[in-house]
């Protein structure tokens, strides 16, 4: 099959393949390891126990026609209630931002990390104001793998932020802060969404590492395209986070009321109602790309080059219309989609060729990308 639409208006087949990846990330039942460090590792037992408990109750309900009908009615109503709440939440950018944990200071940090002259004195107080970021950086510098880089006799646990940043080094800081920002925006601490979060995390990091490699290959600001590629998952992340928060809030309320009513059938029906991943996937497809730039605008970054790239990726119908930086982000995301779909055995060689042809990935780029380690950041 000859491909004659390279770079033009995105063909239906490319859209279908890209949506296939997101559907597997959000709706698919595959489990995934976290990467770089353990993400929500303590939730694995909870997630597995919840799945086993739901399976057992569902098996019992299937044998009881009346109980099954109760389950179907209650589950449908619960999911409808959650869906309405999520739609209402997504209609308000302020409400989305508040619950997603993204703020102006974080975006300013990402801007300050770009370019060659980093003002650490402006950056440090911004880092200090984000307790989760300070914690993550402390964990890095005090980890066993990092301690061997410190001078002899410095086995004491570091807690001073200035010393921590000095030991980590500015080149590593450029990689780590965007990395930790995205992880903070993703839903965490939720057994219902553990595997989805891990899969989206892996996709995000494969994309970002690929973008950094392409940026270096083409002598562009590799940190800028790395940051933009991570930002291209901001919208999907906040849709997932808001959906998860509203589902668990509603689910917990209904479960408590069913328990108080001492209605076993009602309680079981609520218990086995799963996170509405199909509906949330549809919301991600509908709102994700738009939120990437609208949230940045809402946080007073309308004039930022980061916002321009996010808007390009959402609004341009043709790959050929993208700027150089936006096209690198698009190619990196394309490569990551193909890598993950190949791991899942959900893409054939012809479809892979269609993706690479449309996004005009050259042989030189593919050789460079195949040589990267996508399991961890290349910390110097």
Automatic annotation (TrEMBL):
It holds the Pfam family HDOD. Residues 99-315 form the HDOD domain. InterPro entries: HDOD. This is HDOD domain-containing protein. The lineage of its organism: Bacteria, Pseudomonadati, Pseudomonadota, Gammaproteobacteria, Alteromonadales.
């Amino acid at each position: 099959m000859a491909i004659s639409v390279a770079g033009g208006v995105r063909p239906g087949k490319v859209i279908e393949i890209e949506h296939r990846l997101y559907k597997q990330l959000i709706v698919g039942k595959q489990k995934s390891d976290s990467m770089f460090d353990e993400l929500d590792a303590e939730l694995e037992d909870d997630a597995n126990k919840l799945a086993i408990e739901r399976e057992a109750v569902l098996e019992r309900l299937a044998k009881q026609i009346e109980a099954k009908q109760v389950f179907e009615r209650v589950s449908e109503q619960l999911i409808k209630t959650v869906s309405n709440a999520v739609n209402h939440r997504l209609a308000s950018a302020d409400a989305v931002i508040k619950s997603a944990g993204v703020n102006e200071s974080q975006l300013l940090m990402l801007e300050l990390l770009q370019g060659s002259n980093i003002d650490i004195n402006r950056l440090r107080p911004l880092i200090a104001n984000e307790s989760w970021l300070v914690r993550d950086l402390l964990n890095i510098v005090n980890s066993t793998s990092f301690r061997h880089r410190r001078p002899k006799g410095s086995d004491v646990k570091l807690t001073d932020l200035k010393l921590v940043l000095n030991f980590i080094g500015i080149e590593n800081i450029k990689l780590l802060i965007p990395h930790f920002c995205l992880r903070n925006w993703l839903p965490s601490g939720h057994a219902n969404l553990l595997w989805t979060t891990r899969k989206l995390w892996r996709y995000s990091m494969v994309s970002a590492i690929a973008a950094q490699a392409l940026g270096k290959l083409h002598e562009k600001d590799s940190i800028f395209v790395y940051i933009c590629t991570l930002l291209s998952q901001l919208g999907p992340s906040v849709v997932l986070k808001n959906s998860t928060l509203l589902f668990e809030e509603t689910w917990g309320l209904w479960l408590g009321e069913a328990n108080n009513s001492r209605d076993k059938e009602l309680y079981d029906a609520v218990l086995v109602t799963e996170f509405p991943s199909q509906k949330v996937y549809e919301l991600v497809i509908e709102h994700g790309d738009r939120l990437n730039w609208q949230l940045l605008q809402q946080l007073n970054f309308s004039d930022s080059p980061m916002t321009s790239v996010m808007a390009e990726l959402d609004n341009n119908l043709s790959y050929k219309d993208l700027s150089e930086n936006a096209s690198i982000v698009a190619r990196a995301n394309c490569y990551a989609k193909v890598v993950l779909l190949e791991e899942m055995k959900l893409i054939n060689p012809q479809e892979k060729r269609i993706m690479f042809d449309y996004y005009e990935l050259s042989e030189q780029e593919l050789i460079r990308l195949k040589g990267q380690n996508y399991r961890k950041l290349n910390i110097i």
